[in-house]
Structure formats: C-alpha cells, structure tokens
Write a structure and sequence with these properties.
The complex is a heterodimer of chains A (about 220) and B (about 350). Chain A is mainly alpha-helical and about 220 residues long. Chain A is about 80% helix and about 0% strand. In chain A, α1 packs parallel to α5 and α6 packs antiparallel against α7. The chains are: A mainly alpha (about 220), B alpha/beta (about 350). Chain B: Its main location: membrane.
C-alpha cells in the first residue's frame, strides 16, 4: 500500500473522529437539558407543564423518526446557512447534531426515569428548589445512565458519520465508498471497516469504564 | 408544635372521588413523640405528607411552630421545610453520594458554607454512630445504617420537628429496636417533636407518648399510650391491641362463646390493670371475697412507657349472682373489664 493511501486513511480516520467528537459534544450539550426538560415538565413532576411537555415529546419523536440519510439531504439549506457549504466534514456535523439531539434527549429522559421518585420527594421535603433538585439530585443520580446513553449516542454517531460520507462528508465512510466500493478495492474497504470496528469498541469500553466509575449501586 | 385543623384530602372529584383524609384535627405539643397507627390504606401516609405539604390538603390548616404552612408561598414553604425533617420507609438516600455528602445535602441546599457543613455534619455522624462510615456509599450499608444516615440527614437543618413515615417498617425487629432507641435519644437530647406513622404497635409501645388511630381517613381514637394499651376505646383499637399482645381466648373457647348470658352460663372476661393494681394479689382476693372460681386462660404483663400493664383473659365460674358481684368488685378496683362473651357451664 502506498504512503499516499496511508495518509488518506489517516486523514479519513481523523475526519471521522472530528465529526463524532464535535457532533457528540454539541448534541450532549443540547440533548441533556432537553431530556431533563422532557422529564421535569411531565404531569405530576417538579415543573409540570403537561401541554408543553406533550408538544416537546412529539417534536422529539418526529426528530427521531426521520431516517438520517433523508434528514441529511432535507436540511441542506439549513446546513449551508450555518457552515456556508453543504459538503465537507463541517457540513456533515450539522445533520449529525440534529439527528443526535432527540436521541440523547430520550436516553437522558430514560435514565432519569430510573431514579426512585422517593429521592425527589426527600429533596422537596428538605426545601430544595426545582433547580436544586435537577442539579443536586436528578443529574448526579442519573449520571451512570446518562453516560451510558452518551456512549450509545457516540457509537451511533460513528455509523451515522460513515453515512455522511455518501454526500461528500468526508471521513471513513466516504473513503470506504469512494475507494472500496466505487473503485472496487476490497483492501481499503476492509481497512475502513476494521478501523470503524476498533473505534466503536474503544468508545464502548471507555463509556463502560466511565459508567462503572459513576455507579455506586 | 404541629397543629392540623380540619384537614381533608380528596383525590379526584365526583362519584369516583377518594376521600383520603376526612376532617383531621391533631395537636402535637413541643417535645412529644406522637404516633399515628392504622392499617394500610387508612390514610396514614397522606396524613404525614400533609404536614410538610408534600401533599397539599384539599381543605383545612397545617400549623407548624405557629406558622400556617397552607398559606405560605413556594419560597416561604421551602424555608419552613427546613424546620421539618423527614425520614422514609425506604430511606431515600442518594446512591451517588457518600454518607457524609448525603447528610450534608440539606445544608448545601440552604447555602451553608463548606467549612460550616463539616462542622455540622460530623457531630450528626457521631450522634447516629456513623463516623466510621462517612466515606462509604449507601449501597455498602445495611438497612439500619441507611436509616441512621437518613436520620442524620433529617437533623442537619436543625429542624424542630421530625416526621417519620413508616421509618422502621422495612427493618428487622432488632434493627427496629435500635432505630427507635435512637429516635427516643434524639427526642430527649434535642427536644425534637416527633410525629410518626406506623402500622406496628411495637413502635407505638416503645417510644410514643400519645397515639392516634386512623381508619378510613378518620382519626377515630386518640389517647395517651398507657391508656390506649389498657383500654382502647374503639373496636379497631382493641383489634390492634389484641393482635399485638396475642391475647386472644383459645379457639375452642371462642367457638363456644355466646353473646348473651343465659341461666347456665358464666362470663369470659378480658381484664386490664395498670399501675399499683398489678402488684396486688387480685385474683385470689376476688375468689375469696366474691366466691367465684377464676380460671385463667391467658395472662401477660407488659411494660409500656414506664407503666406496668397486666392483661388477662379469664372465666369467672359461679352463679349469676356471684359472677356479677365479682365484676362489680373488679371495676371498683380500677380494673378495665371487657366481657368477651358467655359460655355454657359444663360444656
């Protein structure tokens, strides 16, 4: 294999890591508060807003039901508005974030669901404000579950980012399609898949490690 | 210290409405340990949760230390809740926090500084016997230790009142005893007013000064614990007491019991006597003075809140005249007599 080829592979790997890291971080930043909001505005919860909650839940579900490949194409005008282009890794990050936000939000909501309601009640009995309940009880108690959700998200983003390659997004998916599929080079195909497998394994192990550290049950 | 005035709680409306509490009046003086006992579903939990407004009463007033909590806005209520510690059946500790940090939580919520938190948490860990567990997580503790953490946590804000929601129901008898001892200790040392709800007579017997009996959302009976154990005023009170004392007449006799006296029957009585009468040779004197024979079926002596309580189930064997004289004599000696029924002679 030529050194140019190796360079190509390295570049694609870094592109993938960049897309996953950036979209993972931004979707966590927005998705976690959204998941908390979905939880605390439920009927009977500390900031109950049943109607707003319903609307939010529907919007979240719509976001989750659109297939990524369609979403990616459908929001091209929006992507162009944000990053000024519809191709390249930065352009791929936008749909990745849009797709991951509702995903993270639902996983966070699920993690919060696992908290025994008695804990919220105990905090209320201590005179905690809703904000204190979120920061001192809900988030710390759901930390393990949230980290687990983020791990799943990152792994999903690895495969989504490969899909982004289909529309000129760069990264390992792009490389695999252009060289492995279009030029029918089984070695490149094998290498890109192997790197993706290793990446997913790595993220999963890291996630599991963090979850174990957060969990005192 | 705690005053409930006409507190009612209704869930839902119309014909399907559930009246969990009906017009409850309760007055717990400063420094008292007040128990409320009842079967599950009677409204105990709703009652105690109305005191710190975890449940907002549908009507009525909740007054704690002179403040009407039902009229306070959210912020004032949060401040008032610092005066009301609460512990729960399932402890409700934060799994993500160490013992120390669990106890520190209410202080963090109040905005107490880090150094002051340390100063206030350590004596509490000492009081509850948890000093060597400070760095452990709740998952590493036994049920009794968890409840001790919960008690320390409830005391951290220096409340005037401690609410105990079935605090010992998830614990084994030995652990229950040690937790009750701790609560009593706190009551004495800190002068803390304690309101507890329970379905266990043991809890009432061990530490309560007064007891209320709740049934179907109503407070049907209230008495000093000694009086309640001597002579419960209601059927439900007697059922609770008899089940607790395991003081039931033998099954074979129960089957023969008749409600009304006949010419050839003699009474079966439940006698409860407390204080000085326990020490007197009551039965032999009764037999000598009234001429009845006394057949003791069950007897037991209990110590409740420092008072000795004697309980007995006996048949009084004699003519209708002599047995009725015996009953009068017993009552004259300040003995609580309950006629359980009558059995046929020579049956």
């Amino acid at each position: 294999m030529s050194s140019a080829m190796l360079e190509l592979i390295l570049e694609a790997t870094l592109d993938t890591l960049y897309m996953v890291a950036l979209s993972g971080a931004v979707s966590a930043l927005i998705g976690i508060p959204l998941g908390v909001l979905l939880y605390v505005t439920r009927p009977g919860q500390i900031l109950a807003q049943p109607f707003a909650q319903r609307v939010l839940a529907i919007v979240t579900n719509i976001g989750r039901s659109i297939p990524f490949i369609i979403l990616m194409v459908a929001i091209i005008p929006f992507t162009r508005l944000i990053v000024g282009s519809s191709i390249g890794t930065n352009a791929a990050v936008v749909p990745l974030i849009i797709a991951a936000i509702p995903f993270v939000a639902r996983l966070v909501e699920g993690a919060l669901n696992e908290i025994p309601p008695g804990l919220i009640e105990a905090a209320q009995a201590m005179g905690a404000t809703p904000y204190q309940i979120i920061t001192k009880v809900l988030l710390p108690e759901a930390k393990g579950g949230i980290l687990n959700g983020l791990t799943i998200t990152v792994v999903t983003l690895v495969s989504y980012s490969a899909m982004a390659g289909a529309v000129g997004g760069g990264g390992l998916g792009d490389l695999g399609i252009r060289y492995g599929y279009n030029r029918f080079d089984p070695l490149i195909m094998l290498i890109t898949v192997a790197i993706l497998v290793i990446m997913v394994q790595g993220f999963q192990s890291l996630g599991d490690h963090l979850v174990r550290k957060a969990d005192h049950k | 210290m705690i005053k409930l005035e006409g507190v009612s709680k209704t869930y839902g409306a119309g014909p399907t409405a559930v009246h969990a509490l009906k017009n409850i009046d309760l007055d717990v003086p400063q420094g008292a340990i007040h128990g409320v006992i009842g079967l599950s579903g009677a409204g105990k939990s709703t009652l105690i949760r109305c005191v710190n407004l975890l449940e907002r009463p549908t009507s009525g007033r909740v007054i704690v230390d002179g403040q009407d909590l039902t009229r306070q806005d959210a912020e004032a209520l949060r401040q008032s809740r610092h005066q009301l510690g609460m512990i729960f059946q399932h402890f409700n500790l934060l799994a993500s926090r160490t013992v120390f940090d669990n106890v520190a939580l209410p202080l963090e919520l109040m905005g107490v500084s880090k150094s002051d938190i340390r100063e206030r948490v350590e004596p509490l860990l000492d009081l509850t016997g948890l000093t060597d567990k400070a760095r452990q997580y709740p998952a590493q503790l036994s049920g009794g230790q968890k409840q001790r953490v919960a008690i320390a946590r409830a005391l951290a804000s220096r409340p005037k009142v401690l609410l105990c929601d079935e605090a010992t129901s998830a614990l084994d008898p030995q652990t229950t005893a040690s937790i009750l001892e701790l609560l009593q200790d706190i009551n004495r040392k800190l002068g803390l007013t304690i309101l507890l709800i329970t379905h266990e007579m043991e809890v009432v017997k061990s530490i309560c000064h007064r007891v209320g009996l709740i049934s179907d959302g109503e407070l049907v009976e209230e008495a000093d614990v000694g009086d309640f154990f001597t002579a419960p005023a209601t059927r439900l009170g007697r059922d609770f007491l008899n089940a607790f004392l395991e003081l039931e007449p033998p099954q074979a006799l129960v089957e023969r019991l008749e409600e009304t006296a006949g010419p050839h029957t003699h009474p079966v009585v439940r006698l409860a006597f407390s204080g000085a009468t326990v020490a007197t040779p009551l039965i032999s004197r009764l037999a000598r003075d009234s001429g009845v024979d006394v057949s003791i079926l069950q007897a037991k002596v209990e110590s409740i809140q420092g008072r000795t309580l004697g309980l007995m189930i006996a048949e009084l064997i004699g003519s209708p005249d002599t047995t009725s004289r015996a009953l009068t004599q017993l009552e004259a000696h300040d003995i609580n007599v309950e006629v359980l029924g009558h059995v046929q002679r020579d049956a």
